[in-house]
Amino acid sequence: MNNILKKGIIMKGKIRLLAVAVTTVLSVNAAHADDDVNIGYSELPLGARTFIEKHFGATPATEEIEYKDAPGVYVVELRNGYDIKFGRDGKVIEIDSPDMKDIDEAIVKDILPVKAVKFLEEKKLLDDVDEIRVQRNGGYLVEVDKIASDRKYRFDSDGKLQERKGRR
């Protein structure tokens, strides 16, 4: 009986130790998952700085620049209202226009494949693009805001239309 009691006490101690270890690991992971770090403009990848300077001037006014470690994304908020996300490689993965404005045509042409640009031009939507997201599969999601309706267009990586949602 004494031997069984000792084994029970030892087992309880091991379970408690395991519970503490698991809790510690989960706490450390949760703390690091939220590692958003404010960084300086010069810390952006070269491709991101080149894109910003090409479309917004040599010394763009930035509101905030954050690096989100978990997904490896740089989030840039410009004072003119544009929000841009760049991947680790410096390529645009998302751009959102300021309220009540559309993304400049030159920016749309710089991000989207030629076929997608031609489609938007033919539909007279090129100057109504609000948001562009580069999908994980290499395709593009383009949100267009025309006076009375919002529409979304999904293009593959070559710019071929895959899906259309909304009116028109």
Following the backbone from N to C, one meets helices and strands in this order, namely: HEHEEEEHHEEEE
How many domains would you count in the coordinates? 3
Overall residue-averaged pLDDT value = 83
Structural class: alpha+beta
The helix content, as a percent range, equals: 25-40%
Task: Extract low-pLDDT stretches.
Answer: 18-22, 24-33
Order of strands, widest sheet: 1-2-3-4-5-6-7-8-9
Total helical elements: 4
CATH class of the largest domain: Alpha Beta
**End-to-end Cα distance:** 81 Å
- Which of globular, elongated, flat, extended, rod-shaped describes the shape? globular
CATH architecture verdict of the largest domain? Roll
How would you sum up the major sheet?
A: 9 strands, antiparallel
Output the CATH topology of the largest domain: Nuclear Transport Factor 2, Chain: A
Strand-residue proportion: 25-35%
Could you give the count of β-strands?
Answer: 9
Radius of gyration: 24 Å
Write the layout of secondary structure elements.
Layout: H1 2-33, E1 36-38, H2 46-56, E2 62-68, E3 73-78, E4 83-87, E5 92-96, H3 105-111, H4 114-122, E6 129-134, E7 140-146, E8 149-155, E9 161-165
Short descriptors:
168 residues; alpha+beta; Nuclear Transport Factor 2, Chain: A; 35% helix; globular
Q: What does it look like?
A:
The protein is α+β, with helices and mostly antiparallel strands and 168 residues long. The chain folds into 3 domains: 34 residues; 56 residues; 72 residues, Roll (Nuclear Transport Factor 2, Chain: A). 35% of the residues lie in helices and 30% in strands. It has 4 helices and 9 strands, in the order αβαββββααββββ. It has a 9-stranded antiparallel beta sheet. A hairpin with a 4-residue loop joins strand 3 and strand 4. It is globular. The chain starts with a helix and ends with a strand.
